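Q: Here's a chain of 511 amino acids. Please give me its 3D structure as tokens.
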Amino acid sequence: MKMKLPASLIKSPDVTKKEKWLGYLLGPAGALLLNAVLATYLNVYYTDVLNLTPLWGGVFLTVFPIVSKVIDAITNILMGQIIDRTRTKEGKARPWLFLSAFLVPLTAVLLFTVPESSDTVKALWVMISYNLFYSFAYTIFNMSHGLMVPLSTRNGTDRGGLSVFNQITTIMMSGILVALVFPMVIMPMIGVDKSKWITLMSILAIVALPLTLLEYFFTKERVTEEAAETEKKDNIPFGQQFKLLFTDRYMVLMYIYFFVYTVGTTLKNLGLVYYCNYVLGTYNDGITQMLVSVIGGLPMGIGIFAVWPLAKRFGKRNVTMVGFVLYALGSLLCWIFSTNLVMVLIGQFIKNVGGLPCAYVFMALFADCLDHLEWKSDLRIDGAAMSIYNIIAVAMVGIMTGVFNWMLAKAGYIAPFTARSVAEAGQVLSQNGWAAQVALDSLKPAADGVLTVALAQPHSVSWVISFAFVGLEFFTGVALVVILFFLNVEKDLPRKQAEIKARHEGKENPR
């Protein structure tokens, strides 16, 4: 017995304003907010709240993320195959978006409800909950959500507009809420109190459910509907799909581009909180991280109005390539003056101006590559293409998390601790031979009177954190300029799209 899916509320053959605002701007906000919080703070929860850095001699937090991402890579391949073989009136990706609306919130809460037990039990819970979220629930969401823009329409202008709206949501969640509200208000309030972290994540999970359903109801797969009569040709073995993807030079370049970009941004995201807590400012001071994120992120607001007109005039590839020149220069400036707040803010502003085109037009450029591949092979393999894209994303998160935690452990990172009084804190410091980051009498207790005591880190830890947050992206920025030079997929694309449409309409091939 087949389950009947609720119908989309979008009926128009053309992209509508309601679709843009509800399906692509507001709908994804809940799951993307959850992911943004986890990308920035889950590792902090593991190192500072659960104090897992020394577990098994530092091996656990190094190895488990990498092993988990091997599992995640496999589930992404499976999910891509499942999507390409899904046939429903509601499309091939949207049905899975509906399912993810329920799975993502539930598994997100499990990430934080680690029981107070032995190290072995904690490690098992962390590994299982991590994979339930990332390898299962979020893989389903991310695969289906990521295909909404490529499958929404072939109209280049509409597709670009949807890509911008989608990215506005991502930037609002990570660049405003997580970057501004969390360091100023939330983190000083919850400190390293585990129960408060669980409460926070439960609230975010509750919000995510109805918003993801909103994305499901206000999106439409027009490209899937257009190709409905020819979809049977796309049901080919993954090995053949893999060969098609990796013998097309534009798809290969796109994947290399995304790989390099993800390596840099992942390490930067992991290092953000630590950098602001230990190199540029003090632990949860409520100011440093806010300034770095907001001043550096101001260009993202400007980009809403500037990037797409520039991309239409000069080309998505060209504008993105020039942007990465600024990206590299801004990162270099931050790295040279890594402890100077003013120079870091200037560098972050320059870097984010350079990152605007990538942020807003990447998925539209990826969709262009998919159209080129369809023109070349007469096959539409969106699920397989997105599975490789997601494998890169999730694998790099796992690998770079493991690398970052390994670097922290080897450099001698010391997690903060809590105390009920200044006297108790002083006793712990004396017993362990540690030095507090700031004078104990200047610490402000939480509402329940608990003090969070951060420790002065060795120079080696400061260097590792600085390289992670501001150093690596100089090198990735330079590499991305070179890669994009060869990614001229937009050439003759309108003609290729017209030929694809003619095939679906049964007309004589213009070629």
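Q: Can you summarize the key feature?
A: Strands lie at 417-419, 451-453.
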